[in-house]
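Thread amino acids onto this structure.
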């Protein structure tokens, strides 16, 4: 596995919630972190049907455009009773003509579970694939996951995206209610990040 030896990294994401979380995870490593927006990059189209495929598109696009190593995150929530949906299409489910509406997407998810009369607990997992790509085209991939259940109504103001309806196993609060530092210890993103650190930063 290739080691990360530089002192600069581009975060190949346009999601402010992710950028905040990954900046917090990277903070102890003394790396100068910039975002795709800092470099004036637009969002590449996520045309693959897997987290890994889309993570690679985003990281390689940013690495080639900036000449710097780039770290992307492709993630989503997979609900068992919905055959893994929305999964890779989690962001797409929130798409409206006026931008993303996650309250609407969460309501759609819950309504589908209700329509199916899905049994409780309504188990789900958050998945995260991180891709670290270099300008020469090399990359490394890291996968993380956290199991839990989808609940209703939405609870909590922390986090982003689907956090208000996801309760991780072993807890009775949603990610939206959880202190961000605690989420950083146990999320799908933290799980993948620990593997990135073990593989590339040590
Ligand atoms: O592609 P980038 O620019 O990184 O940002 P994005 O928001 O489009 O990100 P994805 O394509 O990976 O879509 C994943 C969606 O899954 C949701 N998601 C991922 N991780 C999450 C988390 O920790 N908490 C809540 N929702 C999450 C969130 O709504 C994201 O928009
Ligand atoms: Mg995206």
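Threaded sequence (202 positions):
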């Amino acid at each position: 596995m290739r080691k990360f030896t530089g002192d600069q990294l581009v975060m190949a994401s346009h999601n402010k919630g992710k950028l905040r979380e990954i900046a917090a995870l990277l903070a102890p490593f003394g790396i100068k972190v910039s975002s795709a927006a800092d470099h004036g990059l637009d969002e590449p189209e996520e045309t693959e049907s897997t987290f890994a495929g889309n993570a690679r598109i985003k990281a390689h696009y940013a690495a080639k455009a900036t000449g710097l190593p780039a770290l992307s995150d492709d993630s989503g929530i997979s609900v068992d009773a919905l055959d893994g949906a929305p999964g890779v299409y989690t962001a797409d489910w929130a798409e409206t003509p006026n931008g993303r509406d996650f309250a609407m997407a969460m309501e759609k998810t819950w309504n589908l579970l209700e329509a199916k009369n899905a049994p409780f607990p309504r188990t789900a997992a958050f998945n995260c694939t991180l891709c670290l790509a270099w300008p020469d085209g090399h990359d490394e991939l890291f996968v993380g996951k956290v199991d839990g259940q989808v609940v209703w109504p939405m609870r909590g103001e922390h986090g982003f995206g689907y956090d208000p309806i996801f309760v991780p196993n072993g807890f009775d609060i949603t990610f939206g209610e959880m202190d961000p530092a605690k989420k950083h210890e146990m999320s799908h993103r933290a799980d993948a990040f620990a593997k990135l650190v073990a593989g590339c930063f040590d």
